[in-house]
Amino acid sequence: MGESQRISGHTHLISLLGNPTHHSLSPATHNLSFENAGIDTVYLTFDVQKEDLPGIIGAMKAMDTWDGSNVTMPCKQAIVPLLDELDDAAALIGAVNVVDCKDGKTKGYNTDGMGFMQNLRKHGVADKGAKVTLVGCGGAGSAVLTQGALDGFASIDVFEMKGGANWERTRDLAARVAEKTGCTINVHDSADKDALKDCIAASDILINSTPVGMGEGSTATPVPADFIKEGMVVADTIYFPRETQLINDAKAKGCTTVPGLGMMIEQAAAGEKIWYGIDMDNELIERELYA
Asked: What's the rounded Cα separation, in Å, for the pair 105 and 263?
């Protein structure tokens, strides 16, 4: 660690709460960023269960050096009622991945959608007024749906498996987000390939938020290559591999492509902006940790 990162009686704490946490890349990301920015804070992971959260939040609020936390499964929903305040996205989704603690008060955020939208903008994509097809509406998809609508998507056609675990939850979320934002949101059965093809043809942006295509050497794709419209924007939430089959197929169609690694880095940067008001050096993080 550099001079600014020596642990002292003045060092503050940011944590990751969930289980398991020890595989996470967040400590490497944030500790490098804090050192680079000269922030006297250390980032640590804690394996905890949902039932531990009331005591943990109480301790965080009582300590003037515990500035906040990331939250991962199985705690992202369970932590919501324990917080003093929620941002709009976290309230709509019902899940939190960032907690900020200032002056004994806690506020929860969901930065996954923020990270996705910022990644779009950094690739030069015009998001306001866009017509969007979103494939998959699990954790990442819910965040993308919600933040995209809050940020000005005109319409979103969502494809989820009818009768699956996410179907009713997706329909409920879509209704609440549409009412809140005025965005037109339609939920379709992912088995309806004709509807998928038609929606993509009418869209400006196609987004994959399923795990299809994840893993080294995978050639799986959630969308047949011939459904992709030439010149549209195609984005993925998957960051391993760096370029999925969907992204490669879109490149072949002359599309603007937005791989998922930027989303992961941008959501981390959003957390640091919330905690300390700093702009993370994303290029440094990508070069040192994800090259």
From this structure: 28
